[in-house]
Amino acid sequence: MAKQITVHVRLDAKSFRRYCAFDTFRRQRRWYAPVLIAMLLITVSLSGLLGVVPLSESASGVLMGLGIAVPLVVFGLYFIQIEAQVASQGLKSAPAVYSLALGTEGVKVTNDQKKEPAVELDWAQLWGAFRRPDAIYLYVNPQRAFILPDGQASASPDELWRFLQKRLGPEKCVARR
């Protein structure tokens, strides 16, 4: 097994969108609240229309409309925000964003967009890693992750994943297909 793996990350819009969808909807499960609110509003609306709950038809219609609108607005605004980030970061041209040197002691992170000193992180400082079919997400903490798209490391994706499992421990590494 390699003693050091280097990843020079060129981040494209598709990889960023996939990460955002994974982090928001799969890892954080932030789709629950809008869907539950919508289901509640629609259930009350239908109960009113069926005469189970004393509601006028117009009140039931308003609740039905809100039940349909809430998830559309929440998810629509979310995707608009993601597209704004893609545009502001210039991800359509897949710029070089950062490089990671993963060694036995930790991870050395270099910002490829700004002249800044490299940041060194011990393996114990890292929160965890998730393996997806097209990338590995290496989390510094629950709010921040490095996106490591497949094919950009000095090792194969499987070698990189085994390296991370060995350094972080299996309890911090989750393979989700």
Can you describe this structure?
The protein is α+β, with helices and mostly antiparallel strands and 177 residues long. It has 2 domains: 5-20 and 92-175, PH-domain like (Roll); 29-88. Helix content is 44%, strand content 24%. It is built from 4 helices and 8 strands, in the order E-H-H-H-E-E-E-E-E-E-H-E. It has helices spanning 13-27, 32-49, 57-88, 157-168, and strands spanning 5-10, 96-102, 106-111, 119-122, 128-131, 135-141, 144-149, 173-175. A 4-stranded antiparallel beta sheet has the order 1-2-3-4, covered by helices on one side. A hairpin with a 3-residue loop joins strand 2 and strand 3 (106-111). Helix 2 (32-49) runs antiparallel to helix 3. The chain is elongated. The model has no long low-confidence stretch (mean pLDDT 95).
Residues in helices, as a percent range = 40-55%
Element-level helix/strand string? EHHHEEEEEEHE
Distance between the termini: 24 Å
Q: Enumerate the strands of the largest sheet in spatial order, edge to edge or round the barrel.
A: 1-2-3-4
State the major sheet. Answer: 4 strands, antiparallel
Count of the separate structural domains: 2
Radius of gyration: 22 Å
Oligomer: single chain
- CATH class descriptor of the largest domain: Mainly Beta
Sequence-ordered SSE layout with sheet pairings:
Elements (H helix, E strand, L loop, with lengths): L4 E6 L2 H15 L4 H18 L7 H32 L7 E7 L3 E6 L7 E4 L5 E4 L3 E7 L2 E6 L7 H12 L4 E3 L2
Parallel strand pairs: 5-8
Antiparallel strand pairs: 1-2, 2-3, 3-4, 5-6, 6-7
Helix pairs in contact: 2-3
